[in-house]
């Protein structure tokens, strides 16, 4: 077994890989939260439920409609995004002018309902979702074994996160979005349809969670609880990174995944709490978050 | 004066209630009502939404339960210890949480509460998934046997009245006025020279200690402290109770806790038990969309309009 300074490299790289994978999901979810927050100034508590919907969507599509993984990877996020658009138009919009705490409570209620509904329909034990045939193999690297599907998660989420970052920071559409974040009234005055932009942004942010859910279905078991547990960690990550920057949300998500993976290797007892502890340290040293602007 | 008559009437009702209703049910309502009142001190009067209040309820419960089982404390000392522990945790968590505002405050408290959850899940003294079972109620002051439900009920009622009185006293004190000023216009409170973070922190400590008091009492009533008491579900439920009853009103959390506990008891008995989270979620959504002032808030509005 390969060791270096008494460290088992197989174990270490294995945990780093798990960390990168978790980090990919953290990045996708906090990216969605940050996009929605930027324009709507609300925190979507239902983001975890949307992730859960994505995973269940993939499972249902495969088992009841015969839609395979690759088609689900495109169709399910679209469906989840459509649900998000519906939620925004019907429920979030009417209280947009109220205190933002109300929209937080509203999305929490939605999350509770969805989680309750799926627990009722499918029970709380998880259901397996097979890895697609094309990605069943793996590669033996000098210091570790890399399953194809895990490599795919890292690549695919990097592409999606990077693409989203590029779209927001570098394109005309993204410029509208950033301008809308700064001053929606002025945008409206310039003839941009801000309400439509808000709806689409919400839909896109939610679709990112749905995409993460489909990706997660083969690695984690598909269960109603999967979203809420993840979301609380993502909240801590959002506090650590601050929601001011899109790139910051992605980097913090990945970074915290790696920190978690390393902790799992060196001190497994703290692996569930390490991200919260990092949050505490960040709150003490830089309360606005690593990438946040001082208010 | 009108207030006092209302409170007196409610108190007399509470004294007579065990004649009609099952004492354990009443005790459950009172424990959650105290919990919700404590939570409402933060949300309703200081404008701070804590999404992690279960951590304090659970801490009170675990500490009291552990000491009652292993140290043979009398119930009043057990409860005191649980309350102090929760207040201490609140002092630490509060210091951290008041560094952020608004929705960040909610996320920070939720994350900190999850930290507590994982701690209690792994700590050796909490009994893990089983929790602490068979916590003895003991004898109050060494001579009142609390295993009698009726005696226990009046003890719980006394605790609730104390907690409610303390909250009412806090809200109506100059300190409470400053809290309301912070809720309404924080920059202005700062410019008037108030150190708002200290005020928020103190409110947080009082609130968490009282939440701990509710948790300690609840542990004695049900003779059980478990992970459910520190789960984020419970943090959400207390928000719901306060919202349904009317945030920012003194009696709202009491009414809301009564309503939600009644609904839960009713549902868990029947076929609808499976739907409980769907229904609670739906109540959340409906309240936020159409009923933001809650039962008591709505009632007060009607009184103002008609009289």
What is the H/E order of chain B?
HHHHHEEEHHHHEHHHH
Question: Which consecutive residue ranges of chain A, at least 5 long each, have pLDDT under 50?
Answer: none
Q: Give the CA-based shape of chain A.
A: globular
The amount of beta strand of chain A, in percent, is: under 5%
> How far from one another are the termini of chain A?
51 Å
- Main beta sheet of chain A, described? 2 strands, antiparallel
Order of helices and strands of chain A: EEHHHHEEHHHHHHH
Mean pLDDT of chain B: 91
Oligomer: heterodimer
Could you estimate the helical fraction of the residues of chain B in percent? over 70%
Most residues in contact: chain pair: A-B, 43 and 40 residues
Could you characterize what this model shows?
The complex is a heterodimer of chains A (295) and B (307). Chain A is mainly α. Chain A has a domain at 13-95 and 183-295. Chain A has helices spanning 9-40, 47-64, 69-92, 100-122, 148-170, 172-182, 184-189, 194-216, 226-241, 246-266, 274-285, and strands at 3-4, 7-8, 138-141, 144-147. Chain A has a two-stranded antiparallel sheet. Chain A has a two-stranded antiparallel sheet with strand order 3-4. The longest helix of chain A is centred in the N-terminal third of the chain and has 32 residues, at 9-40. Chain A starts with a strand and ends in a 10-residue tail after the last helix. With 307 residues, chain B is mostly helical. Chain B has a domain at 21-234. Helices cover 74% and strands 3% of the residues of chain B. Chain B is built from 13 helices and four strands. In chain B, the strands form two sheets. In chain B, strands 1-4 form a two-stranded antiparallel sheet. A two-stranded antiparallel sheet of chain B has the order 2-3. In chain B, β2 (139-140) and β3 form a beta hairpin. In chain B, α3 (54-70) packs antiparallel against α4 (75-97) and α6 runs antiparallel to α9. The radius of gyration of chain B is 19 Å and the shape is globular. The two termini of chain B are 17 Å apart. The chains are: A mainly alpha (295), B mainly alpha (307). Chain A: This is Branched-chain amino acid ABC transporter permease. Chain A: It is a multi-pass membrane protein. Chain A: Pfam families: BPD_transp_2.
């Amino acid at each position: 077994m390969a060791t270096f300074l008494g460290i088992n490299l197989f174990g270490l790289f294995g945990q780093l890989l798990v960390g990168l994978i978790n980090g990919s999901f953290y990045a996708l979810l906090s990216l969605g939260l940050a996009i929605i927050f930027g324009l709507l100034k609300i925190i979507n508590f239902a983001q975890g439920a949307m992730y859960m919907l994505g995973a269940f969507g993939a499972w249902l599509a495969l088992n009841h409609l015969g839609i395979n993984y690759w088609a689900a990877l495109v169709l399910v996020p679209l469906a989840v995004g459509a649900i998000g658009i519906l939620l925004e138009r019907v429920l979030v919009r009417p209280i947009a002018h109220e205190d933002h705490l109300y929209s937080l409570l509203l999305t929490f209620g939605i999350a509770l309902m969805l989680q309750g509904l799926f627990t009722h329909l499918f029970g709380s034990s998880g259901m397996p979702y097979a890895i697609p045939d094309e990605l069943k193999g793996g590669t033996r690297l000098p210091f570790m074994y890399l399953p194809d599907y895990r490599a795919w998660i890292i690549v695919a989420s990097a592409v999606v996160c990077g693409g989203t970052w590029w779209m927001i920071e570098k394109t005309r559409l993204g410029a509208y979005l950033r301008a809308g974040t700064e001053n929606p009234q002025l945008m409206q005055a310039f003839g941009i349809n801000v309400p439509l932009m808000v709806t689409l942004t919400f839909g896109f942010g939610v679709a990112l969670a749905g995409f993460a859910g489909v990706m997660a279905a083969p690695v984690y078991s598909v269960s109603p609880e999967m979203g809420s547990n993840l979301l609380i960690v993502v909240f801590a990550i959002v506090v650590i990174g601050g929601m001011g920057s899109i790139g910051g949300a992605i980097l913090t998500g990945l970074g915290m995944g790696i920190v978690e993976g390393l902790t799992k290797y060196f001190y497994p007892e703290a692996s569930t709490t390490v991200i919260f502890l990092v949050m505490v340290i960040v709150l003490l040293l830089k309360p606005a978050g690593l990438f946040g602007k001082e208010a | 004066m009108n207030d006092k008559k209302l409170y007196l009437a409610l108190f007399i009702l509470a004294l007579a209630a065990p004649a009609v209703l099952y004492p354990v049910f009443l005790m459950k309502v009172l424990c959650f009502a105290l919990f919700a009142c404590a939570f409402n001190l933060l949300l309703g009067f200081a404008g701070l939404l804590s999404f992690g209040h279960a951590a304090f309820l659970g801490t009170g419960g675990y500490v009291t339960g552990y000491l009652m089982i292993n140290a043979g404390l009398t119930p009043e000392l057990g409860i005191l210890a649980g309350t102090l522990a929760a207040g201490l945790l609140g002092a630490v968590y509060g210091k951290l949480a008041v560094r952020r505002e608004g929705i960040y405050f909610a996320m920070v408290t939720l994350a900190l509460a999850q930290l507590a959850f994982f701690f209690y899940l792994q700590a050796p003294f909490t009994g893990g998934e089983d929790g602490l079972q068979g916590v003895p109620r003991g004898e109050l002051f060494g001579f009142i046997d609390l295993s009698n439900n009726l005696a226990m009920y009046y003890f719980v009622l006394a605790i609730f009245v104390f907690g409610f009185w303390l909250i009412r006293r806090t809200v109506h004190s100059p300190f409470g006025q400053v809290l309301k000023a912070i809720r309404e216009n924080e920059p202005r409170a700062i410019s008037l020279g108030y150190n708002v973070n200290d005020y928020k922190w103190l409110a947080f400590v009082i609130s968490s200690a009282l939440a701990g008091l509710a948790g300690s009492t609840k542990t004695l009533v049900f003779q059980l402290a478990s992970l459910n008491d520190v789960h984020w579900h419970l943090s959400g439920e207390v928000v719901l109770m306060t919202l349904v009853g009317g945030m920012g009103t003194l009696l709202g959390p009491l009414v809301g806790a009564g309503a939600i506990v009644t609904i839960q008891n009713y549902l868990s008995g029947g076929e609808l038990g499976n739907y409980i989270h769907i229904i609670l979620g739906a109540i959340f959504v409906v309240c936020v969309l159409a009923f933001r002032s809650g039962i008591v808030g709505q009632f007060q509005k009607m009184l103002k309009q008609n009289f």
